[in-house]
Design a protein that fits this description.
The complex is a heterodimer of chains A (about 110) and B (about 110). With about 110 residues, chain A is mostly beta strands. In chain A, about 0% of the residues lie in helices and about 50% in strands. In chain A, strands 2, 4, 5, 6, 9, 10 and 11 form a 7-stranded mixed β-sheet that branches. Chain A has a 4-stranded antiparallel β-sheet with strand order 1-3-8-7, with no helix packed on it. By secondary structure, chain B is mainly beta. Chain B has no helices and 11 strands. In chain B, a hairpin with a 4-residue loop joins strand 7 and strand 8. Classes of the chains: A mainly beta (about 110), B mainly beta (about 110).
Chain lengths: ~110, ~110
């Protein structure tokens, strides 16, 4: 079974620029999550999708972050404009459905904002 | 507000000995708990889980203990191996409000050969 694919692996941008991350979940996994992991902290949920609908985006800074999951498969997370404090690893994870425990994480995208 | 806490940022253990990683939580509604293991430059990988109806779950060298009254869980690795060196995260969820997991800050385990 192929894992959760994420790209790019690394990204360096200047503050106020825009950036987008891409995630392809495990085939058949209906639930997709985006987590932000700041250095020295545990992952924090940004947004959760069930198919192409949003289940929880309460911790997504909506003034600058947006995410979509068109067709209920791939997902993109965008930051516009980026701030220095957005420097983090952005992890995508998927699970079979909302009631399934134990996500599978991708390798993450490490974002550095300078 | 950190609902899941791992108060030891790092732990060093001799190969062959027991590693004990601790985790505390504040929300009494949490009823499902996971441990993840993370190597550098990789995403976290699922290790072991426990639900609140149990107080122990074992999988090979890994055992998770849950003390609901103390809101505490621990991961025991016996015997520890150098390949176990990684960052370990505990995570907790309230299944009645969906399956968002709250993660601790992680404990970096080093197993010394």
């Amino acid at each position: 079974e192929a894992g959760v694919a994420q790209s790019p692996r690394y990204k360096i941008i200047e503050k106020r620029q825009s950036v987008a991350f891409w995630c392809n979940p495990i085939s058949g996994h209906a639930t997709l999550y985006w987590y932000q992991q700041i250095l020295g902290q545990g992952p924090k949920l940004l947004i959760q999708f069930q198919n192409n609908g949003v289940v929880d985006d309460s911790q997504l800074p909506k003034d600058r972050f947006s995410a979509e999951r068109l067709k209920g498969v791939d997902s993109t997370l965008k930051i516009q404009p980026a701030k220095l404090e957005d420097s983090a690893v952005y992890l995508c994870a998927s699970s079979l459905d909302v009631g399934a425990y134990g996500y599978t994480f991708g390798s993450g995208t490490r974002l550095t904002v300078v | 507000d950190q609902q899941v806490k791992q108060n030891s940022p790092s732990l060093s253990v001799q190969e062959g000995r027991i590693s004990i990683l601790n985790c505390d939580y504040t929300n009494s509604m949490f009823d499902y708990f996971l441990w993840y293991k993370k190597y550098p430059a990789e995403g976290p990988t699922f290790l072991i889980s426990i639900s609140s109806i149990k107080d122990k779950n074992e999988d090979g060298r890994f055992t998770v203990f849950l003390n609901k009254s103390a809101k505490h869980l621990s991961l025991h690795i016996v015997p520890s191996q150098p390949g176990d060196s990684a960052v370990y995260f505990c995570a907790a969820s309230d299944s009645n409000t969906g399956n968002q997991f709250y993660f601790g800050t992680g404990t970096s385990l080093t197993v010394i050969p």
